[in-house]
Amino acid sequence: MRYTNLFIPTMRETPSGINAISHILMLKAGYVRQLAAGLFIFLPLGWRVLNKINIILKEEMERIGAQEISMPILHPAEIWQQTGRWYTIKEEMFRLKDRTGRDMCLGMTHEEIMTWIAAKEIKSYRQLPQIWYQIQTKLRDEARSRGGVLRTREFIMKDSYSFDADEAGLDKSYKMHAEAYHRIFSRCGLKYYQVESDPGIMGDLESHEFMAPTPAGEDDIVICDNCGYYANVEVAKSKLESPPIVNMEFKEVYTPKKKTVKEVSEFLGVDERYFIKSLLVITEKEPVLVLIRGDQELNEKKLARLIGDFYFASAEEALNLIGVEVGYIGPMNQKIKIIADNSIDKDLLYISGANKKNYHIQGINPREHFKAEWFDIRKVKENDKCIKCGNPIEIQKAIEVGNIFKLGTKYSVPLNAIFLDKDGKEKPIIMGSYGIGPARVAAAAIEQNYDKDGIIWPKSIAPFDIEIIPLNLSDKKTVKIAEELYEKVSEIYNSFADRHMEVLIDDREERPGVKFKDADLIGIPIQVIIGEKGLKDGKIEIKKRRTKESKMVPINRAVVEIVNFYYETF
RNA sequence: CGGGGUGUAGCGCAGUAUGGUAGCGCGCACGGUUCGGGACCGUGGUGUCGGAGGUUCAAAUCCUCUCACCCCGACCA
């Protein structure tokens, strides 16, 4: 394509007030414009990138036998009411009424509608399994959109759904999706991890997320490169060693005005690991005292999975419930429910609050002095030991580019998606759902591939493969060579996929500097630079955007050199 | 939803303390010169100072309300 036929509004100045690299570069390089909070317009280059990603998605989905369909975005409320999500989901769902006053909503995901059509049409085990997918718009009224296209209120998603007759079938569909996702993200040039994840309200079964590590990510993931244990910190576990036992006399100690573990630890000269931190939380039903080793932190997600939504008691509530202010609460003689973290060793002696102002108690033994229910509710930290192999783990920020969930019968039962098995028995369809956000893939690719000059696209998802840059349009020879190369290179077929080499020619009447700057900004993998200096020696320059590695090649060998250069680039 | 910040020309910003004719750079249009890393000269256009109300002879500037956007947190099915 010709630059003069494309709308690529690059910006000279860096937009202010935003942080995410991908957000800045997508704006600056003319890929997107923002309409309002969380609403983005994809301009020609941005749309080309999304389509490149979508083609990869389609190829890999078709490869596992998934069939593309298209569902409405506007949904009748009744179906969402049947699964209960009309009520459990709150402001995140866009709701409206049609002209007759019927409740409707805009689709934030499509489990309900997919299950509805399956319920209507699938009657027999002979029709199973099925995998249906679409690449389609979702709407979620996000409390806070952020990071450019990383978290928006309207976005495109590849969502697929598997329908199986039994668990073994679901396992197979799930595994096929995982494999397809590995191929997809590899082909898109992303560095990524498949991590264990919290299924949230999607289901209670197995789920994984595909995470592209970058500082712009919203999630923290635990990485053990030694054994391959990868998990979202929301669910991650780690090994924790207990310190050696220390004998302490069982007694109250005076700790005036020392409230936090750190303060008391310093005051008494005892390591934080010999403390029990007592946190008072309140659920819808009851107050709960949560215990965790002094040097550790509570993982609120893990706790919420055990006791439901909760909040930390205020100083006043603590005083009313326990009779002592925060800072001196301890596990002993409590009437309320106690949940303790496994980090507290039942064989050791600990220090904790005495439930009396300005006092702590030392020598507390978990077996002897209080009763609790024991769980893993600890937040994994950097350099903890891997739960599987014991090596130190790493924690990184990551963007969730895809997820896979086993749904089981969570949707098929309420929506009555029932089939008859071989024995003529009625059974609910076993389902899975699987999502990928193409815009996040694009943003993650930028976050992982850029330099001070702009974007460096992985070539699989670049908007063009080659950019031809004639430096001076008033020089006839430059133009002639550039146009010839444009024709010839465009005609080359990619031997691995049935498509043309996509070539952009910068035919603008601009000075060389402007063309160089824009070329680097928009990030096409290969630049072909045609200038009078080179032409004097019968040569043109070819250059890799990623490494800036370049070489002068004779004009008569230009086409083959360009193609070779292209194939050896990532 | 809680906390913080910003709204002045297409973009980046100054002007606001102490009220007095709305500015700068880049971009944009036209003419010319230039052409290997965001050229130069000349000419020209560009605004309801986010909005509403108020104080005042006079408001970008002071007061009240409001809206939008960004960042941190909560949330994220």
Question: How would you characterize the overall build of this protein?
Answer:
- By secondary structure, the protein is an alpha+beta fold.
- It has three domains: 21-190 and 407-446, BirA Bifunctional Protein, domain 2 (2-Layer Sandwich); 251-375, Alpha-Beta Complex (YbaK protein), CATH 3.90.960.10; 464-567, Rossmann fold (3-Layer(aba) Sandwich).
- Helix content is 26%, strand content 30%.
- The protein has 15 helices and 35 strands.
- Strands 3, 7, 8, 9, 10, 11, 12, 23 and 26 form a nine-stranded mixed β-sheet that branches.
- Strand 30 (493-494) and strand 31 form a beta hairpin.
- The mean pLDDT is 94.
- The chain binds one RNA strand of 77 nucleotides through residues 9, 11-19, 34, 36-37, 85, 88-93, 108-109, 111, 140, 142-144, 146, 151, 199-203, 218, 405, 471-475, 510-518, 520, 529, 531-534, 541.
Short recap of the structure:
With 570 residues, this protein is an alpha+beta fold. Helices cover 26% and strands 30% of the residues. The chain has three domains: 21-190 and 407-446, Bira Bifunctional Protein, Domain 2 (BirA Bifunctional Protein, domain 2), CATH 3.30.930; 251-375, YbaK/aminoacyl-tRNA synthetase-associated domain (YbaK protein, Alpha-Beta Complex), CATH 3.90.960; 464-567, 3-Layer(aba) Sandwich (Rossmann fold).
